[in-house]
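Lecture notes, continued. The same structure-token format from the folding unit now serves as the input rather than the output. Read the line below as a description of shape only.
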């Protein structure tokens, strides 16, 4: 089943705007699942526009890695929060949601990017 935005006027279709959010937001949040149990974590990240890829680093062990190794498919969100609109009953923010597959970079050469990520 395909879902749609309730507020279609809020949809961002301009790729440059989507990329801007992925580059400028300070954190992303990813959702994972293992054995039918969900887990959600927020991470600092880097975005490589050329590869259309998000990078983040973490310890070599732990709950997050157990989940990612069990099911490498994730759902995520990048959020830019602009706060409440003064004098109005609204909050300004932009989100980009994404689905992806996690790939672990094991070799140091893979982890070093020319882009400085």
């Amino acid at each position: 089943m395909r879902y749609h935005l309730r507020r279609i006027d809020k949809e961002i279709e301009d790729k440059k705007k989507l990329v801007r959010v992925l580059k400028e937001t300070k954190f992303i949040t990813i959702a994972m699942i293992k054995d039918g149990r969900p887990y959600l974590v927020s991470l600092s990240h880097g975005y490589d526009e050329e590869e259309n890829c998000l990078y983040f680093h973490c310890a070599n062990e732990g709950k997050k890695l157990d989940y990612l190794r069990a099911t490498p498919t994730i759902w995520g969100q990048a959020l830019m929060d602009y706060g409440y609109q003064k004098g109005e009953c609204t909050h300004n923010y932009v989100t980009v949601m994404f689905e992806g597959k996690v790939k672990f970079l094991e070799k140091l050469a893979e982890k070093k990017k020319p882009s400085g990520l």
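Point for the exam: The beta strands are 27-34, 37-44, 46-48, 53-55, 73-84, 91-101.
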